[in-house]
Specification:
This protein has a single domain, classed as P-loop containing nucleotide triphosphate hydrolases (Rossmann fold, 3-Layer(aba) Sandwich). Helices cover 37% and strands 23% of the residues. It has helices at residues 36-52, 63-76, 98-101, 107-120, 136-139, 145-159, 177-184; strands spanning 4-5, 13-15, 21-24, 27-33, 56-60, 90-92, 129-134, 164-171, 189-192, 195-198. The strands form two sheets. A seven-stranded mixed β-sheet has the order 6-5-7-8-4-9-10. Helix 1 (36-52) crosses helix 2, helix 4 runs parallel beside helix 6 and helix 6 runs parallel beside helix 7. It is globular, with a radius of gyration of 16 Å. The model has no long low-confidence stretch (mean pLDDT 92).
């Protein structure tokens, strides 16, 4: 199967590591899923592509997903698993860190934290950032659907000028419909049922 490139920005091209898709840095993609095996397959492919490219990898995921992801990666890519043991290359955000990173109360602080993560990773060997965020980790701290939409909008502004791929995960079995619809208005690109598409709900 040939590479299927989706032009998402004017920045450089990266391999998504999933179903032969590639896109551009500076992109924020929503992944909609309702099956844990589909989620795991996507995360394994996307993270492994980051390992191969020696990108900085960061995940904000619930503990249950973390353990399955690491176990599955160690089994499938045993030779490269050492990369995920290096805290300078891979990290999980702790649950208490997530409200600081993604909060509607202080967007300046959110921007500072994400900028610090990015520019800190560029000091010795410049590399792209692949950041995976389970949106349920944000929803439980977010008062209204519009607050979530504003967080997504701010993330878009922060990552668009950087070699940064942001993946936000939406479990359709859990997220309230009002939150999902508000969030999707801020996502230009959506992965759903093995297809990366431009989102018709996106509002400029």
């Amino acid at each position: 199967m040939s590479q299927l490139h989706i032009w998402t920005s004017d920045r450089g091209i990266l391999d998504l590591g999933y179903l032969k898709y590639s896109c551009n840095w500076g992109t924020h993609i929503a992944l909609l899923y309702d099956d844990d095996s589909d989620l795991l397959a996507f995360l394994l492919g996307m993270l492994h592509a980051g390992v191969v490219a020696k990108n900085r990898l960061c995940c904000a995921l619930p503990p249950s997903v973390r353990s399955h992801l690491l176990d599955a990666y160690a089994e499938k890519f045993s030779d490269e698993f050492v990369y995920l043991k290096d805290s300078n290359s891979f990290q999980f955000l702790e649950e208490e860190q997530i409200p600081a990173f993604f909060s509607s109360n202080d967007f300046a602080a959110m921007s500072d934290l994400m900028d610090s993560l990015y520019y800190g990773s560029q000091i010795e060997t410049p590399t792209g950032i692949r950041f995976v965020l389970d949106i349920q980790q944000v929803v439980k701290e977010t008062p209204t659907p519009r607050d979530l939409a504003e967080i997504i909008f701010q993330i878009n502004l922060i990552v668009c000028s950087k070699d940064w791929l942001q993946i936000s995960l939406y479990d359709l079995r859990q997220i309230p419909a009002a939150y999902l619809m508000s969030a999707l208005e801020q996502h230009r690109f959506v992965f759903r049922r093995d297809k990366l598409i431009q989102n018709s709900l996106y509002c400029l």
